[in-house]
Specification:
The structure is a single chain. By secondary structure, this protein is mainly alpha-helical. It contains ten helices and two strands. Strands 1-2 form a two-stranded antiparallel sheet. Helix 4 packs across helix 5 and helix 7 crosses helix 9. It is globular. It starts with a helix and ends in an 8-residue tail after the last helix.
Amino acid sequence: MSNDENQRNEALRPVASYVPWQTFCGLLDRLKATAIPTRLDSSMLRHMSGTAQSQLNSALKFLGLIDGDGSVTETFRELVRAYKTPQWKDHLASLILRNYEPIVGQLDIKTATPGQLREAFQQRGGVDGATSQKAVRFYLMALKSAEVAFSPHLRVRQRASRRSTVRRGITPKTLLDRDIERPSVPHGTFRVSFEVLGFPHASAIIPEEISDDQWAAMSNYVKTVLSLRRQALSKPGSGASS
């Protein structure tokens, strides 16, 4: 096979889902409460940013839930109908095990380490770098939701020295822990974490379609609130130390 053919095959290879799990479930929840369209196009996802739409479409294609033109498959219809019912776990487990078999089929998922799983996704899932971390997170969240057993190494926190924690500005955790410990964000929003700034428990929930002007207004509002709070705490009797 020529290099050109290899490159074409590589480009056509489905990319493992790396959309946030909450976004995926948010779509199922929305369609469950309304109606399942025959085609999922941009008009159905206009409440999302362009990046979120692209990630979601890629995930749906990888899972065989939509065709190349966005047409909804019967598998997608069955999954939506099963969502939040006793049949949900069985449908989800079948979907995940079937579509991820080419990626993790040779790996014993019940004993795998985080490094082994990342390598499998990077070698056979069409993802690398930060995208591979997101893809692994989606996979683990799907397994957990389907109650499919997997290695305890993939959900146990990795301890690190105080020096490395302070230097990097974050607390080392497995990919799954990050999604389990934090509450899910509302549909149409995303979370901005301030871990890298040295505030491991601080975060903000932001609308998907926020504009630069709206973000600037939000930032100025927070500055005003902080200023007023400092003034209030500095007054006598406020309990603040002099």
